[in-house]
Queue: 3 jobs
Job 1
Amino acid sequence: MQFTDLGLSKPILDAVTEQGYDTPTPIQAQAIPAILDGKDVMAAAQTGTGKTAGFTLPILEQLSKGERARPNQARTLILTPTRELAAQVAASVATYGKNLPLRSTVVFGGVKINPQMMQLRKGVDVLVATPGRLLDLYNQKAVRFDSLEVLVLDEADRMLDMGFIHDIRKILSLLPKQRQNLMFSATFSNDIRGLAKGLVNDPVEISVTPRNAAAKSVEQWIYPVDKSRKSALLTHLIHENQWSQVLVFTRTKHGANRLTRHLEGKKIKAAAIHGNKSQNVRTRALADFKNGSIQVLVATDIAARGLDIDQLPHVVNFDLPNVPEDYVHRIGRTGRAGATGEAVSLVSAEEFKQLSDIERLTKKLLERKGIAGFEPTEKLRESRLSERPPGNSARKKPASGSRRRNSNRPARTQSA
Ligand code: AMP
């Protein structure tokens, strides 16, 4: 597929060509037609997948066909968690929109507000913003959303992680009901699904895993084990293999705390990081982990996001994640930059469904290993790639009778 096949007009295609791109990335190939069709989109995609162009190009296309923005109005609002990302997205909007008569601007905190108010005065077709500063500008009547057409939440998981949920809900309450909603998130945790519920209507769901996500340099296997024996098995593995730096994932904050206490009780230096820990505590735990004074860092998926630790030799999934994409992100923490890594999962019988979901997503069965003394009393079922486990509700298509228009594409498309 080429960019020319996607239904974008010449001014936009010229700008894309100028960047040297001719082939859309998987997220672009899937998101661009859906967005041009006016559909809501919920996409699991990390930075590096080409997601920014995936939403920017079709938005610019649609905006170029409509009426220009009126004074102090924004036609598109793109919310991002950080200034850096806001600036990057705004740069992409400017790059891809350079041949179009559209106005765009970016606003974020930490700099003077007056120049931003001036920028908004004439109205903007695209406004890229961080939540706090946007609300300040709204309160000062610098921006209005009466004719808002499109809302984008970029890196939605990070926004929740950074505590922006109240700001986001407040912003949502200011927007017209009739609009197109696009939500991008590295992962689809329960929190994200909760936010999405009141936000997107019958969305086209897209999931792309970053290239090399399950890179060959990561050796993966599982230990079937009883739930009650997981802590003891982890302790055994750490001692036996003399693991000096291991990142352990748990599904819940409570589980992270409990496991950390258990490890400390076994004289293994461990720390937990999760949403209930202050930024200071998290930063210190990470520094201690990096300098070797902490051997085991126990993290929940959300807390681990954005952790700047490269080339970890060992990642352990103490629990399997409910969202299979999270597994891919977790194991992406090891075996980076050519170094070989090991990703080990402790899987109890009741986690069969999560295991099957992961194996289906990664299109491979995970090798099973056993350790003497830790054989499970409750057997983990054998999995098969063709198998669709019962009760697979999280990944079901929306109910029929939906308001999706003339769609002959599947509601959820995937690329591995
Ligand atoms: P993003 O995931 O949006 O942060 O994009 C990651 C990088 O991929 C950026 O540097 C883009 O300029 C680049 N990029 C976006 N689309 C394409 C494409 N179709 N082909 C090659 N590179 C691309």
Job 2
Amino acid sequence: MKWSGVPEVATQRVMTQALATQYVFGGGSALLAALGADGPWWDRAALGALALTALAAGAVTFRWGARWPRPAFHGAVLLGTVLIGAGVVQSPDAATAVSVGALTTFLAMAACFFFSLPLAVVHLTLALGGLTAGLLVRGDVSLLTALSIDAMIVGLSVVTRGLVLRASSASRDPLTGLANRRGFDHALHEGMRAVSRTGEPMSAALLDLDHFKAINDSQGHDAGDRVLRQVAKVWRKDLPATAVLARHGGDEFALLLPGMAGPAALDLVRRIRDQYPDVGMSCGVAEHQPGESAAQLMRRADLALYTAKATGRGRCELDGGAASTLATDLAAALDAGSITVHFQPILDMRADRVVGVEALARWTHPERGPVSPVEFIAVAEQSGLMPRLGEHVFRTACAELAALHAATGRRLRVGINVSGRQLADPTFPERVRAVLAETGWPAAETVIEVTESLVEAESSTAVAALHELRALGLGVAIDDFGTGYSSLSRLDTLPAVILKLDSSFIATITSSTRRATMLRSIVGMADVLGLDVVAEGVETPEQDALLRTIGCSFGQGWLYGRPAPLPDVVELLDRSDRIAASSR
Ligand code: C2E
Ligand code: MG
Ligand code: MG
């Protein structure tokens, strides 16, 4: 808030309570003054009537003030000015007039608390003008006495304004000038109260800048700060007046949209985001549901943000929107058994032979066509379908490979991706054992692929599950090593036997000598630790040649074969076997 703006602490509820209290105490005080005054009964009666009007105004404000539009508070303060002016003129004696006039302090406080500075000054000028004129018209109060009351009221106004600004700054983010988390929580609770009273819709959104950390790391914190200020500025410009935008911390913003239903809120955030394409942003939106708490609403907005980020960033998702439709469709696909498994060859680079495959889930949506696993795995995680989906892929992969072995004698070691949600389930190792027993597939030919981030998130249960699986004879691979989540200490704590280097890392090894050096060191370190290394995403012969020179043991990528249904993979393997045999 700027010094001249409307104070943030002046919420509808606080204004209602303050004004009602002032009217009640002002009216009560005037009533006492009327009772205690000397003079003609009709003057005292008139003053008493004004006091009763003030008491009634207090009751009305208390009962209905929270529903008034903000401008109505100007009317309420003006009514006070009129009542006090009339009371001063009607007072039977000078002492009573001064005592009634002193009630102008209530008006001054309200004006400094509720309104922007220019409007507060207008109210104050009217109130002091009315008071001074009223006192002078009486003829029994001197100009200096009137001015002394004015001076006291002006002093009190200045102090009130200062305190109000100080209280407001505790709810403000100094960098962007937006509300901070505290200010947002305050607005959210106000919004919740309004919703329960009026039944109007309300939506909340969480906005997260994509790759903000990279800006901070590569261009410095000043550049990061500039981006945050810029975002605050452009967003504030396009939001409706009732919206509350807050910086929730770091690069996360929260937005409250009173009076707006979910789809409209989603449209709005999408529209604003699309206007400023240079700042990548993911958003999660949720509409308030009847009976829901503020914390539940924000949790759903957070879930929607999680889905938006997991499905490729730069997206906006509405909780209960497209993502949950996709979850329903995914559940139906699982019921119908239409989730299939493709297999991607893994090459032993020293023997130049395919020795294994990675099982990858595939889903062709009846209307949308093929859906990326990155997207539907995120949806499955969020909607609780992951254990079913994971087990389906596991069973399908083992059954198909066991059938292949039975028919041809060919045995391929299989890598199966397992999500953190599955590992967090204490029955997971037992389920794995059951699937292996049911399909007849050997544990020794099975590798569980886990990403470090997920293991980290679920921690002790997950690590215990991995140890149990190792004890059953399965291998454990750390997947996507070399992405944002890699940590060396994890190599030590996880019972892994394989390290899978992420394709984003392999993509740079032929263009950057530093990367090539890092690769050499990682392969050396893995060797010392007794870990096999699989290079993922090998696409070019140059990458293949460099990996061989460095001594990387396994490779996986389009160069050796794309993920495909098992019969296609087998055909490819048979063909390369024939070529190898004929060249011998
Ligand atoms: P991942 O486990 O790292 O799988 C390797 C991904 O790299 C696959 O993507 C594969 O198609 C892709 N890939 C392989 N070779 C190349 C290449 O040469 N160049 C490039 N650019 N990409 C290559 P896909 O199939 O889209 O799967 C993406 C991710 O989804 C997987 O990453 C895995 O984390 C997850 N996922 C897939 N299926 C399952 C599943 O059944 N369960 C779980 N929990 N996650 C799965
Ligand atoms: Mg994998
Ligand atoms: Mg991977």
Job 3
Amino acid sequence: MTLRSVVIGSGHYLPEKCMTNAEITTFVDTSNEWIVERTGIQQRYLAADGETTSMLATKAAQAAIADAGIDPTTIDLIVLATATPDYTFPSTATQVQAALGIHGGAAFDVQAVCSGFVYALATADNFIKAGSAKRALVIGAETFSRLLDWTDRTTCVLFGDGAGAVVLDAQEGAGTNADRGVLCTHLRSDGRHRDKLFVDGGPSTSMTTGHLRMEGKEVFRHAVANLAETVEETFIKSGVSPDEIKWFVPHQANRRIIDATAKKLNIDPARVVITVDQHGNTSAASIPLALSVARHDGRIEKGDLVLIEAMGGGFTWGSALIRW
Ligand code: ACO
């Protein structure tokens, strides 16, 4: 028998404030046409003044816990992916732990920017497979609006705030691809590309939060190549072929990156979950947000084979195959 991390609940939360492309055109030199054509984004949600990453994360976690129908105190591991923590320390995960009334187990953040959820899922899955945790809450939550230079049209139109979460439960499987749960994960990074996507501040450099800076074209080029590579690794290691994937849930950075990656991998466009049009790029929150949206609108069903992938600053990238 093999221990599997089975998804027993999912949830998400978006802040109330929705900012359309039309609203952005009132303060930077851009247009709805440019943003839609280059990115597919039509709108994004922004956290209210005083609304922090842990607040968004707690609401997404509560929704996932309610969906799972479990007592939150049975959760013995919280792994939270974010690049926009409430504080330099303590971790945002411990803030969420306290807000949920959980006082046992372990809670910590992981930082892999847009790949954060894949990293967090792989981490929690390995804790479960090692027998170190029985029930894990895996969260991706961001307030990227706080990192943006709202006068820089090349970056401020791309991102939004939000949170998504899943509950993983340790269950015995047969060790085959027919098992429910996380079937495999692949993580990669290459720190030589730091300058292509980074934040120009931090506690031990500028002692400020800083702003996001990006070489968009370079990121785009690496994204399609790296994402195709990590997914092909998943196909080879798992023996699964593209036509067996019921739902492809990529990181929601840009519609053109998603379409190009799906095409390169021979994944049917009808099987691709897209939320970037509605949410913008919510970094580590984008995959759990999209998973929860597709689960709760009836697309993702129990037993479906779901493929996730992401790339982010670092560069970091990775993929995971989940039988829901
Ligand atoms: N509105 C209007 N014009 C703009 C805007 C804007 N918001 N932003 C840039 N432009 C202009 C540029 O100034 C440039 O003008 P010029 O030709 O007069 O110099 C022109 O549009 C073209 O700019 P490019 O940067 O070449 O445009 P490109 O087609 O590469 O699209 C984009 C830019 C959308 C950022 C694209 O490169 C991209 O999506 N890259 C991936 C970035 C990404 O997704 N990052 C997220 C984090 S990483 C991840 O999640 C994978």
